[in-house]
Amino acid sequence: MRLPTFALLITPAVSAITTPQAFASSSDGVYKLSQYFVPVRGSGTPGSNSTWSLSIDDTASGHKQTIKGFGAAVTDATVAVFNALPAAKRTQLLNELMTPAGADFAMMRHTIASSDLSADPSYSYDDNGGQTDTTLTSFNLGDRGNAMATLLAQMKSLQPALTILGSPWSPPAWMKLNRVLQGTTVNNNLDHTYASQFAQYFVQYLKAYQSKGVKIDAITIQNEPLNSNAGFPTVYIFADESGSLIQQNVGPALRSAGLDTAIWAYDHNTDVPSYPQTVLNTAPSYVNTVAWHCYAPSNNWTALTTFHNANPSVAQYMTECWTSAVHTPWYQAADFTMGPLQNWAEGVMAWTLGSDTADGPHLAGSGPCDSCTGLVVVDTGAGTYSYRVDYYMMAQFSRFIPKGAVVLSGSGSYSFSGSSGLESVATINPDGTRTVVIENKFGNAVYVTLGTKSGETWSGLVYANSVVTWVLPPVGA
Ligand SMILES: *[C@@H]1O[C@H](CO)[C@@H](O)[C@H](O)[C@H]1NC(C)=O
Ligand SMILES: *[C@@H]1O[C@H](CO)[C@@H](O)[C@H](O)[C@H]1NC(C)=O
């Protein structure tokens, strides 16, 4: 097996590779972004391995969406556990997350004040003791907001191409009909008396982060607007209400404040595509992007292709899907990255980037996720961290698909009902190399042969229950 030098990998723009490379991460932990059998030109020698055929269109006719990045949610839990690490360990961790030394994440979503993955008590950036604050005089990031902004600034300094999305779980209590952050689903709606304060809250937040060196690229005005839950901060926002808040209030407020932060629609499950469609139709001056989560019953990412076909100029992202040490399978992150990429998503983010060894900290009570495990798990007592299988599965994409890569149309992926099958997605990268990510959900190795429309054939082994990433040289190289 050929051993490419690491320098070639991290400086592709300077010298695109001329020989293929392959890397694997496997459910059994034998491979963790490890070098693996490189594919050979032609149909190769499968021996008695099972075989599988894939094809891609790597010519101009096969070009689909352009990639922005991959990453995860920077929650209060993430910030708290990262800050519990000794300085040298924390530096090492951030370097691995945000550079080609590791996952090379280039897109993060952060929680605007508390989510369910915050320690008690829940809070907003303008609680004001529950009293109305029409002038937002009491707006304050607080300790946790300041720590969040500091971490995001450090991430941005390591990854200058980082795209940051911000999403709130609830407006301040006093802006709501029920006047509480959490505790009841009754009247859990915005009080439109304060629609202009609702908009100014985003302006204040964006300026406060900017003053800490963090440019926020995009917001959604509400995480999961159809999820009214008493157990943690939420607010219910109807589709037409969301569109009108953006068109009449939030959009104009951002513009008059000189902020170019984008506003993405929806931020919820794929089973109600009429919601983002209504937002796009109601707020055409401000919205051209839709954010999706993975929690619909029988979630099927082809909903994004259906949405794309109806809205070909609208960008789409997968902005939240959980990973859990006890509830999700080894291929959870591979599935929720692969599926959206095959269906026009320009980026994918997991929930949550970090947690402690008890899946926290999180709010108390029965609403919050008490089994959401970070891609990174920090043992706060020992001052050490470790990566979950989900980290490696995402990194099999993020490390080899740079920002600016273009997804190629392809065929040959197939999943059987249940947990077996072979799925693939390919990109052509800014330096002309091609990345092919292959997810093998069979318990045996599979010998894959890939045909390209440019006229090449590549073949190689894909380990059992793993994701293998091939990096192929530019066409004709
Ligand atoms: C499967 O393919 C690999 C890579 O070509 C080869 O090393 C191995 O011997 C094959 N296994 C069998 C059982 O033929
Ligand atoms: C998703 O929907 C598509 C199109 O209807 C279908 O071909 C595919 O089998 C579905 N996938 C799953 C996992 O149900």
Kindly describe this structure:
With 477 residues, this protein is an alpha/beta fold. It has ten helices and 24 strands. The N terminus is likely disordered. Bound molecules: 2-acetamido-2-deoxy-beta-D-glucopyranose (2 copies). The site of one 2-acetamido-2-deoxy-beta-D-glucopyranose has 7 residues, from loops.
Produce a short descriptive summary.
The chain is α/β, with parallel strands linked by helices and 477 residues long.
Could you list some keywords that capture this structure?
disordered N terminus; alpha/beta; binds 2-acetamido-2-deoxy-beta-D-glucopyranose; TIM Barrel; globular; 477 residues; eight-stranded antiparallel sheet; 24 strands; Immunoglobulin-like
